[in-house]
Specification:
DNA polymerase, domain 1, Rossmann fold, 7% strand, 6-stranded parallel β-sheet, 3 domains, 341 residues
Amino acid sequence: MGEIHKYLNRSQPFLCRRIVSYQNKTKRTLMKRFTFHSTAHIQTSMLVQRTTTKTPIATPLKTNSKNTKNESFRTILKRRTRSARISSSSSTTNKSVKVEMTTSGGGDAPSQNATIFWDLDDCLYKNDWTVANLLTERIEEFTVGKLGLKPGYAYDLYKKYGTCLKGMMVEKILDEKSVDEYLLWAHDVPLEKHIGRDEKLRDVLLKVKAEGFPMYIFTASARHHAEKCLGLLGISDIFIDIIDVRAVEWATKHDEEAYERAMAIAGVKERERCVFIDDSTSNIKIAKKMGWHTILCGTKGRDCGSVLVCAEANHIIETAHEFSAEKHVPPFALAAEQPSK
């Protein structure tokens, strides 16, 4: 037992030296690891600060204890490459948004394309003036039965002023307080018996819309009548808006004011960018005088039944199904508005 104590006493300095050496080595190792990880953390923070100014997302770098230096370098390289790609795609996206804004229609946004104004009755649909005759009968009932006008005088007002309503207001036959009563009475006809869904017409209009041409209904009738007609045809969702007789403040297509107000509603400033499609030669003549591009829809007159001749029409089509933007709408895009390549 005494010999064991002597041996331990002799080996104690050696053991102490080994323990101290091990402790120092452990401290140095820990210091190195701490220093390296601190450096990696500082590099990561600096990188995040640099990349956050370019991209909205900055993901902290991950270090690998087995191969930290190589992993950090690869991560930094990937991050910089990703940042450059995102920056490039962002600038491309901004360019495409600007181009899209200049090519859209409606409102006050500039448009590279023409704006198309469609007449409604006997233009978008045709049924040998069946609906038109029903409307004429209702107007006759109102003017003769309620206002005491002579038979046929309402139709004379229509031909002279563009609409019977405008004629009665000009000649002080009807005041503005009675307009709503008149419009409801005149348009109370069974449209569902004479107008049906038109898939071919829908396909034609959808193609025009897809080509970037904003379209409006420009009618001398009342809005509620136009909405019902469009619903029966199955094309209510294609047009931006309905410009009816009230929207143009009772002006008719015989008046230049109606076209000016239609342009204001559609946000079109250049007259030559307006395309007008109507079945009336009288309306076509005024639109042409205004500088609009004109298309006569229909080749037979309602009253005379003979073939229509209209020098003011840029094009003449039999029905709305024949309309094509490629054939009937001239290119209006200006060189300065073309997107840069």
